[in-house]
Design a protein that fits this description.
The N terminus and C terminus are likely disordered. The chain has 24 helices and 18 strands. The chain is of the alpha/beta class. It starts with a strand and ends with a helix. The strands form 2 sheets. The chain has a 16-stranded parallel sheet. Strands 17-18 form a two-stranded antiparallel ribbon. InterPro entries: LRR_dom_sf.
């Protein structure tokens, strides 16, 4: 049954609701259907084709038309009693859910968007919170939609009303999208006010202050003494205003309760006034559990000392460093009991890995190494971190010699999520001209992954522009033991995933619920499997199919090159802007009758 509904992630999500609500027992169902809308109705697709690449529903006219045409509102309200987590942008859906059966929400993520609905919608959000007694978490994002002083006043009144909801203990508010001088004060005021309500607060804010030197460079040197005096006065007034803003923010931070804030996201360069304010804010968060700090220009003794002396309760750490050296090792040594770590920016070397394994091996459950690295040792990491459940290392480039030295018995681990690239480091390819050793290395990587019998989600990155990441005869046979695998994402090139490959996956992975091919694949792959009807839903980048049709592999007709875009016609026939110009309506109707089931 549907437990999670995300409206603003994909613009066609409203139409996907109707199609997917008929399927039951889809585990952790998150509705993400970009291609479904095209397959549902090509005529309607023409109407909404203009914002296919836009990830937000900002057009109020299309939004209302989509509800009216597909009757999604009725279907949604019919099943909304099962929804536990709601994510939505704009107030249209909030207004539709009022006085409905949507009374079992546990979490609401609301992105403010005045452009889509003409209003903030905070009053609808309060009404929706009133009819959900089990609500425990609230997340507000995109506060750049607060355009006027009245909007800021309404937002402050909304924050004040949160005092009346004692069960909503987790509040996350994301600032940083509007005018900086307005949002800095508003963020700190909101943070201080929520602290007085004794709620577990998580706040994201940008603390970028405009340096005085940059303002001074704006002066225009002219011969007119009057204009010169006015320019200097303007610069001085701006400097004074920023000084008052800084004093106000500092006073707000100093008055905060140091034991309430549990999550903090900072976008700050740790220089000048930004640095002082960020250090002061970190020093006031003595019970901090989650810290996300981005765009750190350098990590020196002061932040490390602060983390060691104050932020000793941090469990979830997400830092983006731009400095070189052993900064990660120092952070891992001074912190205690990290549960999740996300590393980006500076590469994580062997010294950092040893510090992480030594001090956090027993508690670490999630590790994401986003930055490029060629110095990790995955077998040692799995051996030293027995409780690790999620490992993401898309930038980890393996070498032939390293893979050949692996002991496959060290890969027997309870890991549930793995994101790994099958790339072999270029410098090793240059040294070793034997392609056979490289292919053997990839086979051994697949053998190692096959030892992770508890794996539920697997993402394999692309390693060739011409070959798919997994195919029969290229390592997939070694993954037959992954009986619990539910989601597989393959990076691949122009070579298609064949029918035999997909059929092998379905036969050997009974729990498979989602299979997605790489960005360059043009074949049909199952999107998920309905266990009750044994139906595999097809997902295709080039030829959309109606949801719910049995799996079928059909070779498309070979049309001539498109006169406008130069592509094959069967590759762009659903980009309907070409249809009228090419005058190929008869071919399109024949194509739809033969290859796309009617509703």
């Amino acid at each position: 049954m549907l437990h999670r509904l995300s409206i603003f992630d994909i613009p066609h999500i409203q139409s996907a609701v109707t199609a997917n609500l008929s399927y039951a027992d889809l585990r952790n169902c998150v509705l993400v259907c970009k291609t479904w809308f095209r397959g549902f109705n090509p005529v309607l697709w023409k109407e909404f084709h203009g914002y296919e690449s836009n990830l937000w529903c900002c057009d109020a006219t299309n939004y209302r038309s989509l509800f009216a045409t597909l009757d999604t509102r009725r279907s949604l309200l019919k099943h909304c009693s099962h929804i536990r987590s709601l994510s939505v942008r704009g107030s249209n859906l909030l207004r539709a859910l009022l006085n409905s059966d949507c009374v079992h929400l546990h979490e609401i993520h609301y992105a403010i968007d005045r452009a889509s609905a003409g209003e903030l919608g905070l009053q609808y959000l309060l009404e929706l919170m009133d009819q959900n007694p089990y609500l425990s978490a609230l997340k507000l994002t995109h506060l750049g939609g607060l355009k006027t002083r009245d909007d800021e006043k309404d937002f402050r009144e909304f924050v004040a009303c949160l005092k009346e909801y004692p069960d909503v203990q987790r509040v996350q508010i994301e600032f940083g999208y509007g005018p900086a001088e307005v949002e800095r004060v508003l963020a700190c005021e909101t943070l201080a006010q929520l602290m007085r309500f004794k709620k577990a607060v998580s706040v994201q804010m940008k603390l970028r202050l405009l340096p005085y030197a940059e303002l001074s460079r704006r002066r225009v040197i002219v011969n007119d003494p009057v204009r010169r005096a006015l320019d200097e006065k303007r610069v001085q007034n701006e400097n004074d205003r920023q000084a008052r803003e800084l004093q106000r923010i500092t006073a707000l931070v100093e008055s905060m309760d140091p034991f309430v804030v549990q999550g903090l996201v900072l976008d700050v360069d740790f220089q000048g006034q930004d640095r002082e304010l960020a250090m002061l804010l970190l020093g006031k968060c003595l019970n901090l559990r989650r810290l996300h700090a981005w765009h750190l220009a350098e990590l020196n003794e002061s932040p490390i000392k602060l983390l060691m002396t104050h932020c000793f309760n941090i469990q979830h750490l997400d830092l983006r460093l731009s400095a070189r050296g052993g900064g990660w090792a120092e952070i891992f040594r001074v912190s205690k009991g990290l549960v999740s770590v996300r590393v980006s920016g500076t590469r994580m070397n062997r010294l950092s890995q040893e510090a992480l394994e030594e001090h956090h091996g027993a508690t670490l459950k999630s590790l994401s190494v986003i930055s490029y690295t060629g110095e990790l040792s995955l077998p040692n990491l799995l051996a030293k971190c027995p409780n690790l459940l999620t490992l993401e290392a898309p930038g980890y480039f393996l070498s032939v010699a390293e893979v050949e030295s692996w002991d496959l018995t060290m890969w027997a681990h309870k890991l549930e999520t793995l994101h790994l690239s099958l790339n072999i480091e270029n410098r090793w390819l240059q040294r070793d001209k034997t392609i056979g050793r490289v292919e053997q290395a990839r086979q051994k990587i697949c053998q190692a992954i096959g030892q992770l019998v508890g794996l539920r989600r697997l993402i394999l990155g692309q390693y060739s522009a011409k070959k798919a990441a997994l195919r029969l005869g290229h390592g997939i046979e070694h993954l037959a033991g992954l009986a619990k695998l539910e989601s597989l994402t393959l990076g691949g090139g122009s070579e298609h995933v064949q029918e035999c490959d997909v059929q092998w996956m379905v036969d050997h992975w009974p729990a498979l619920a989602s299979l997605e091919s790489g960005a360059y694949s043009t074949t049909h792959v199952p999107e998920y499997v309905d266990k009750e009807t044994s139906t595999i839903t097809l997902r295709s980048r080039t030829r959309p199919w109606h949801v719910g049709q049995p799996i079928t592999f059909v070779t498309p007709p070979q049309w001539s090159d498109c006169e406008i875009c130069g592509d094959k016609f069967d590759m762009c026939c659903y980009s309907l802007r070409h249809i009228n110009e090419l005058r190929l309506q008869e071919k399109i109707e024949m194509y739809e009758d033969e290859f796309m089931p009617s509703l």
